[in-house]
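Subject: for your reference before the review

Hello V.,

The reviewers asked for a structural picture of the protein, and I figured it would be easier to keep everything in one thread rather than splitting it across files. Below is the amino acid sequence we used in the manuscript, unchanged from the supplementary table.
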Amino acid sequence: MDIELTDIELPATLNKSRRFSIYLFDGTERELNETLQNIDLNSKELTVVQHLILASDTNKVLNGADVSKVIGDQYDIPSPSLSRIIKGLVEKKGVLTKNPVLDNGVLRKQCYCYKLRSKREIASDFTQRELSKGKRGNSKETRETLKKSFAEKGHSLEVVNGTDSYQISTYPYARALFPAEFMSLAPTSRNKENYAHKKFVVGTGKNSYSYVIECKAHSQVPTQQALLTMMDIIKLSLAYNAKMLHTGRFKTAYEDPELPVLITQILAVKGITDSGPARKKIDDHIEELQFARWVWSELEGKPNKKRMEGLIDSDDFIFIDRLKRSNDYAATYENGKVKQDSPPSAYFITLSRRIIDNLMGKHNEGEGSDGVNQWLFVIPKEIVNGDPLLFSLYLTLREMKLDTQTYDFTELKRLMFFSGGAQSLRKQLHQKLSSTYKPENPLSLEIEDKVQSFDFNLCGYYLRFGTTEGCDTLTIYCKKQEMVIMAGSKWNPDLDNNTPTIAHPLSKYISKEQVAIDSIVTEMKARCTTATRRKVLYRNFIMSDDFDFSFILTAYMTDIQVNHLASLFNEYVGFAEEDSFRALKMIQKELKPISAGGVQITSEELDHFTNYMSNTHGQVITPQEVMELAKNFREKSLREWKSGQYDRIVESVFKNLPRIQSIMSQPESL
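And here is what came back from the structure prediction:
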């Protein structure tokens, strides 16, 4: 758009006889502050834009030369640098527009007027540019598919694309978040097996204990690479929640547990070039993870409580609770035709509550881990994005917390839960280390006044292959400072015990008040009867030790009803009523309404049915009885429910209600 100078009151400092630039404001620039937080601006770009927004409060027009001088003096940004920044804000970031200038209708060559774009223009343009990035998924139809999926899920593509600056440089790790045994169960490549199980023995002699882990999947047990992709998704979920908290969209971490993530983001975190085969592999990984669950059983011996904490309980271990793909909402197109079996452009992933809880602080690695949302144990990105066997070796070394040790490969095989033979482990480790970690020069370290040589340096763990008394061995030396720094942490020479931890990326957004609420949630869940801790329709809370008083919480309860339950927790347990309400609302978000096959019963339809049973059949049904009766209803039954055709449902109620009531008389069974 051309800008006519005669319509503007120009600054007194402007010399129209020479080449010039101006900045023009319309008074709406303050609205941009929130939008700018969603765009990946570097610190200098953000400084310049914020300066212009602030200047717009008191100016209609600014001389470009004056702007350059003020920014140079105040922020130490020289004029050539400012020119490059302004060019980037126009051409790459789309925050500014560069408009030709007319003087009484005559075009002034090499003179320009810069304007900050409106909040709406930036958001719209940013979305279009991001959708057009890369060579893949670039057709108009595919872009529309992506936009439609984000709109239907209620997410902002603009926000999702702007999370890069919130990513930690390393990867989170906790044993309860990612048990090393899963890598042992996982095949190296797809083998069409949907079941795997293995017995694990920890320790030797009287101090040993064992357990069995089964992995059950829909069509394929997750491969080792799929498990590493899960680590990428977990890392991206931290970045997304950090941004949502920083911008005020979330009040609490994982307020909405669903993670919208582009397939290009997963590829970028992995450091893989975008291509059709790469996308197919990622989609395969996510499909494997979607339906997989791990079951721990047959515990024998006396286990290390800290090592097994959060792993052996009544719940199956799952990474992904729910998953939707962008092409679930519309077809993906190529050359104007529907593309069959093409990988989606985005995923909407709901991590399991177990994963979220452990990400938020329930870490088990090492003494001194406080587990209160302050610190996060981390491992190097080179390890996660590298070879799965070296990943397993690294986790084993971290868990052992050794300084110097020599192992024969039979013992190392046991510690790593390696499925093959000792010689196979030695051969594979040497081969994989040689391809990635072979040093250019010999490695020598002075250890206890003696110089020792090593073959490889695995991110701070120095390794030497050798032979002792005829047995192949691996000597390991942990150079603590190097290991901590390479994990992504900082080394503090004033501390006696440095650990590979970083400040939790979400901790600065979490108030002490929220930590207290989280604690109440934990205590409330401890009062759930054992079986209802796994139910998705309701929770049954026991309020007295002799089980003579309990109440349930469902997804259908209104705030007034939840507030009444909060008053009961205040009366019987002593929790503050306001805190109890907030905690119960957090638990309620985990519960689901009655549904099957995409058909969902609303609160009004639930009330209508219970009133019908009471008024027509004289049968009063409690909310708990309804939930137990309805949990196995199929889609056909729910469609009849929604249309008011109750005959078959009533028949089911009278047939099954006595059994349900009998079970409910024994609280621990529900």
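For the response letter, the relevant points are probably these. The mean pLDDT is 83. Residues 388-487 form one domain.

Happy to draft the paragraph if you're swamped.

O.
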